[in-house]
Amino acid sequence: MGPVVPESQPAEPHRPAGDKVMTMREAIAAYVHDGDTVCIEGFTHLIPTAAGHEIIRQRRRHLTVVRMTADIVVDQMLAAGCVTKLVSSFVGNSSAGSLGELRRRVEKGVPEPLEFEEYSHYGMVGRYLAGAQRLPFYPLRSYAGSDLPSVNPAIRKVMSPYAAEGGEPEALYVVPPIHPDVTIVHAQRADRLGNTQVWGLTGVQAEAVFAARRAVVVVEEVVPDEVVRSDPNRTIIPAHAVDAVVACPWGAHPSFAQGYYDRDNDFYRTWSEISRDPGRLRSWIAEWILGTRDHAEYVAKLGAGLRSRLAVGEALSLPVNYGRRR
Question: What is the Cα–Cα distance from 130 to 207, expressed in whole angstroms?
Fold first, then answer.
């Protein structure tokens, strides 16, 4: 008889050596467990919404979610009962309104309070950098004059070992590293080994992956190895940092994937109305997430008309000659 695997820690799916391609269901089952610290990154662009939906379908609980810009996917995960704590530097519906569930929990503790740990954007970047580089903290000057240190005891001051200009001693603010149990990011493409390529607007995906213990990369398409090798400078996350690769077209909706589809601004505007009403919000989750088997069914439900409206034309980059030995 083989080893017994606890239900909360499912065995990793079998796959050929070196090949990390999984379904979304397999990847979330293998790498997201109750009580985990889960980083979900993508700055306006390439937000891993489909991964958040699968976490909801698998009914994960007591998660700490780390996300610089907590937006719709965080609101949905909160309403579905997945999240106990949020670590973030911004909360809002991407310039289109409020996040109703998040506001209710922070402002009124309804239906239950949310533990919220707040940083600035640069403070979050510093945490990712410290985590990725295995540093004990990351120094920054930008909290001078801010009231954030008064509400977040994790933001501390240390004396610099070097004198400031003029020879005076200098005290600097520092933030602690973060080491998520798993980081999930979305990207345009990757090969089967996990070499991941991004173009257009980039955020802190690479830093968040390197800071984590495990990493799941969701992509619009898995491409042959030679495609990635032909354009190596677009590879921002190397294979050795990736544990799973998930092919999930339209997996960033309602955000956008440069070169694949545009941002669904109507959805963002509508979300403020949906999330304002707790009953309507939970009905939406029941229909669109729990009522769909996977993201492919969700996308089909969106309809061909919407996909056509969000389609993008070509804006090709010129070829680059990397050169080779004769």
Answer: 9
